[in-house]
Amino acid sequence: xxxxxxxxxxxxxxxxxxxxxxxxxxxxxxxxxxxxxxxxxxxxxxxxxxxxxxxxxxxxxxxxxxxxxxxxxxxxxxxxxxxxxxxxxxxxxxxxxxxxxxxxxxxxxxxxxxxxxxxxxxxxxxxxxxxxxxxxxxxxxxxxxxxxxxxxxxxxxxxxxxxxxxxxxxxxxxxxxxxxxxxxxxxxxxxxxxxxxxxxxxxxxxxxxxxxxxxxxxxxxxxxxxxxxxxxxxxxxxxxxxxxxxxxxxxxxxxxxxxxxxxxxxxxxxxxx
Amino acid sequence: xxxxxxxxxxxxxxxxxxxxxxxxxxxxxxxxxxxxxxxxxxxxxxxxxxxxxxxxxxxxxxxxxxxxxxxxxxxxxxxxxxxxxxxxxxxxxxxxxxxxxxxxxxxxxxxxxxxxxxxxxxxxxxxxxxxxxxxxxxxxxxxxxxxxxxxxxxxxxxxxxxxxxxxxxxxxxxxxxxxxxxxxxxxxxxxxxxxxxxxxxxxxxxxxxxxxxxxxxxxxxxxxxxxxxxxxxxxxxxxxxxxxxxxxxxxxxxxxxxxxxxxxxxxxxxxxxxxxxxxxxxxxxxxxxxxxxxxxxxxxxxxxxxxxxxxxxxxxxxxxxxxxxxxxxxxxxxxxxxxxxxxxxxxxxxxxxxxxxxxxxxxxxx
Lengths: 273, 366
Known about the structure:
The complex is a heterodimer of chains A (273) and B (366). With 273 residues, chain A is of the alpha/beta class. Chain A contains 11 helices and 12 strands.
């Protein structure tokens, strides 16, 4: 079996209204899956549910063919790591100290990391290109560097599955590409399975093997980027007219938002004069 | 032979730059090791001991440090009066100052981590005043100093921290400005309550208004130590056990949760623990402010933010700081005395403003 994580008919609600309704999903080993969908469609909730942070009402989640509910929190943390959207450290921890915190789920009662943990942290920093930053304070870093450090911390958990919650939302295009490049390199070289929530549909389409389009708490469509990202699906789900064509270089779907003003400019002109 | 040399040389050469890199790297970012914690603890304990000896020798009666050392080590017969002054008057006060400073500083570190805000401190958040109101209520109702008063003091502290958190977290995160404003208001209210109690009762045990409003260690007795020491040491051990968890919470509650820290449970355990400790020392010494702000901040500057080192260092540093401050309070207007809370406020208030101005922008964004 090379399925890492399986969701079968998962239902979840915060209050009376269903937040997720009948989600079926399967994460295969070594693949990158992108989750897209409008605000409030349940993307972050779905991510938290996969991580066992929220208790589901109906359905089943299997992590390595064992029900997720039978894992302890530290067991889960050794299998699944989460890279948060943004992390605000209020105190000036050094980059090395932050990455070392990823070893938390592996430590016993003795509260200090050993040589081995330091070595793992160092390797993870090497993989994410943050080794040079080791002694810097987390406060001094740019948004892109901080994301790489948080990814290094997630790697230090030695988890096979990495969940990223909109890792690129505060970054400029160069750093967005850097994060996605990093994710795909890690997936290829380390055999990690990755789930990434993203608002940048076209960029995610270039790196993800599969995409999951979420709409109002249920799966609208799942499959290869070209199947999921069509003008029809995206316009319907996001309620925003879009034009989808093929990126001439990567041959992946490319979404162009149609500006309403541009479309109807000639209609407004007579009114102004 | 030559061949051998040639074979061994290249790897040696290749290793050299790597080792250099290693050294530079090791200097720039090292994890916390048990050895480093022990060294730091020993150094600070040494300073604490020296401060205690110096403080013992200072006072209206002239006794030199050398005399103190020779008496303590039993090398010389003791002058009875001097002995009385040292061990009946000065020592209990010094030890209690140490215990109070230890506790308040530790409380500051824990509040700062749990609220993810470097300006949080038992006094600034109004927790100390809450404890004082609890203690005074206990005294007014004639409860005993061994159990009843510290217990009510603890409840007062606990009630205040729940109140402050309840009010300031209503709109999601605990924002600095809301938290501090809530603290100011709670402080103002409790100060009024204290004044009301003092004005309306003639209980002799409410001996001085200043005691409750400015913190004073002149009433210290050994019995305070024997009541306070066991629970404070137990709570400190519990806090230290969770030092790693606090590191993670500082980095974000969601991440901490993800890695297996039971954030809500931990918050309650630690808030209970700190309220217990703070309540206890406030019932002994009154309200002494800013210790938990100044000491942890200085320690963080020198030793970094890792709680496995910061917690013991701040606790010992708090003891050193308050013993020094109280010695100053005894000496500065000798033969009359200042309440030690005046000294800590003189130092702490400008420090607080400095911190607010220096890093305000960075800390207030949530």
